[in-house]
Amino acid sequence: MLVPMLFFILGCSEKQPDAQQIVDEAIAVHGGEKYKKSVVSFRLRDRQYRALRDGDAFVYSRTFTDSTGARVHDVLQNSGFRRSINDTTVAVPEDKQKAYSASVNAVVYFAQLPYYLNDAAVQKKYLGETTIAGEPYNKVEVTFQQEGGGEGYEDVYVYWFHQKRHTMDYLAYSFKENGGGSRFRKAVNAREVGGIRFQDYLNYTSKTPIKLEEYDKAFEAGKLEQVSEINLEEVKVGEINP
């Protein structure tokens, strides 16, 4: 009777949450189908951004005034990158194209999370449950395949999704650029514009090395230092006509 009883116990054990389902539920709550055909614009610090998506087609842009007073307009789309200065297209070295493209893409990526967590290069792993500020969360790690993962394919992310609201309330990430490092972000000022949820973030770091998946514990213990705020201003959402 021992073996049948063992199978019975194992069969009754609770099934581990699925990382893909957790992400799908979060995307649905944050905007769902609204992301797929939309024009989003916002201001971050002194730069204006615009993100147009029509299925797999995209056009991301940023506009700003440089130190000389010239108006710079960067455009990243499926076909590549281009820069214009005072409405005149200029040649940009390949290394600079990659850097500018990564910069534009990173801002749009963070502004519209968690939508991009279902990109083809994304690999998801469930890390378990935790509690932050008395609220229950599921923790999911995201890594990237080299093919299709972009310049930052070696970066690692951890996301905290509320178990009941399904919102993405915290995230941590490590990066190798500029000497490397890691950050932890807390979502604040959540609001809905045009059917899409937008959030600002408080940006934290640790003075001592810490594993990404343990940032929640360090945050709860008050061991993190706030280094900046990421505030999206003048957010607007438009629809693409069929």
Automatic annotation (TrEMBL):
InterPro entries: DUF6503 (IPR045444). Pfam families: DUF6503 (PF20113). This is Deoxyribose-phosphate aldolase. It comes from Pontibacter arcticus.
